[in-house]
Structures are given as C-alpha cells and as structure tokens.
Amino acid sequence: MQQLTAQELAAWLQDETRTNPVLLDVREGWEFAMCHLDGSTHLPMNEIPQRFAELDEDAEIVVICHHGMRSYQVGVFLERQGFGHISNLSGGVDAWAGAVDPAMARY
Predict the structure, then answer these.
(1) What is the distance between the alpha carbons of residues 107 and 7, in angstroms, rounded to a whole number?
(2) Which of 2, 5, 82, 83 has the fewest CB atoms within 10 Å distance of its CB?
C-alpha cells in the first residue's frame, strides 16, 4: 500500500493527465457530515467487510479517515481481498485541512 501525503493527493487531483482516484472515506457518518474531500465516496469502516464488493478492485483507491489509522487498516483489508491499487492518505482529513484546505472544518 502506498502512503500519500495531503500535498501529493492534491497534486494528483489537479493533474489532468491522470485519472482521479476513488476517494474512499471510511469515517463515521457524523465525521463525514462535518467535513470531507469533494467527490468522496462514504463507506464507514464497519461496513467495509459486507460492502467491499461494491468497489472496483482495479480502480486506484485512496482510503481516507481522520488521521490515517482507520484508513490504513481498511487498505490492508482491501489488499487482502485482491485490490491492487490502494493508497492511504497519511494524516487523513486533518492533514488535508492543515496543508491543503485551511477552510475545511477540523475536529
């Protein structure tokens, strides 16, 4: 699994020569409602074991949580299920708010 910084993900999303990844936000509903990256797919961590088949295993997927720990665990799980292109947003939405989008709500 690749680790991406907030700055690296921001550059990827702005690079018109690259296909945007699936932004998979695995936080709880209240967290997602408070703040999230535009275009994110919300699939709470506790639903991943039952719903991971809804995801394209060939897609580039960036897993996102608050600080990067839950997303790392989900990334490991997805890789074990055969997903080959998983990245973890290091530092999660907190790092994104600090480095990329200071207007994003923080908690």
Answers:
(1) 20
(2) 82
pLDDT-derived band at 6, boundaries 50, 70, 90:
very high
pLDDT single digits (tens) 17-45: 999 999 999 999 999 999 999 999 999 99
Distance CA 77, CA 91 (A): 19
CB atoms < 10 A from the CB of 84, how many? 11
- Which residues, 6+ apart, have CB-to-CB distance to 76 below 8 Å? 1
Q: Which among 71, 100, 72 is positioned nearest to 7, based on CA atoms?
A: 100
Known catalytic residue at 35: no
Alpha carbon of residue 95 to chain centroid: 12
φ, ψ of residue 87 in degrees (nearest 5):
-125, 150
Averaged pLDDT of the chain: 97
Which listed residue (9, 24, 48, 65) is catalytic?
A: 65
